[in-house]
Write a structure and sequence with these properties.
Elements: E1 4-12, E2 16-21, E3 24-30, H1 32-37, E4 44-54, E5 57-63, H2 66-76, H3 83-92, H4 95-103, H5 107-110, H6 118-128, H7 148-158, H8 163-177, H9 183-195
Parallel strand pairs: 3-5
Antiparallel strand pairs: 1-2, 1-4, 2-3, 4-5
InterPro entries: DNA_helicase_Holl-junc_RuvA_I (IPR013849), Hlx-hairpin-Hlx_DNA-bd_motif (IPR003583), NA-bd_OB-fold (IPR012340), RuvA (IPR000085), RuvA_2-like (IPR010994), RuvA_C (IPR011114), RuvA_C_sf (IPR036267)
Family: Belongs to the RuvA family.
Subcellular location: Cytoplasm
Length: about 200
């Protein structure tokens, strides 16, 4: 599993980028929002990634932020939403706007994305309403984690914790360990706090 890529941005196109990491060019699918955020061609860049594996392909999808990657995972968990549609939604809506749309059950806002009709938009807002629990908005009363904290939340989500639990545990761990805490230390302490 490839969690992120750090290298030189070699090229971009309408729906992907090529990132040179140690002489190897990785083709990474991406939303238009990520493509505009990762910087100019020829400069250093870093993207969080999700690896998609099927019988006939292996594909990397890249994201400028861990929150965008987490939303991609949630969206592709909805029946009828593949990688292409999820990227179209993330191109049309920022993670915070997507959170608001789902919390408000605003299917019209989700339907603004290319390839998303009214029925699919309704299914997305209905299925994700109980799952968002703080993915992009954070837990009420606690700051939304960023940097190593966001990666720690992602790790907790991958271990099966609900978004609200993961955010609360990581925020508590960040508060105890301080701003310079490493990802490793954050995840260890967050796991202990979540188990209480």
């Amino acid at each position: 599993m490839i969690a992120h890529l750090k290298g030189i941005l070699s090229a971009t196109d309408i729906d992907h980028a090529v990132i040179d990491v140690g002489g190897v060019g990785y083709l990474v699918g991406a939303s238009s929002r990520t493509l505009s955020a990762i910087g100019p061609v020829g400069e250093a860049c870093m993207v969080h990634t999700e690896m998609l594996v099927a019988e006939d392909f292996i594909r990397l999808v890249g994201f400028a932020t861990a929150a965008e990657r987490d939303w991609f995972r949630l969206l592709t968990g909805v029946q009828g939403v593949g990688a292409r549609v999820a990227l179209a939604i993330l191109s049309a809506l920022e993670p915070t706007d997507l959170s608001r749309a789902i919390a408000a059950q605003d299917k019209a806002m989700v339907a603004r994305a290319n390839g998303v009709g009214p029925k699919l938009a309704e299914r997305i807002v209905r299925e994700l309403k109980d799952k968002i629990g703080g993915v992009a908005l954070g837990t009420p009363g606690l700051p939304a984690p960023s940097g190593a904290g966001a990666d720690a939340v992602s790790a907790m989500l991958n271990l099966g914790f609900r978004p609200a639990e993961a955010n609360a545990a990581v925020a508590a761990a960040e508060e105890e360990l301080g701003a310079g805490a490493t990802l490793d230390a954050l995840v260890r302490l967050a796991l202990r706090k979540a188990a209480k």
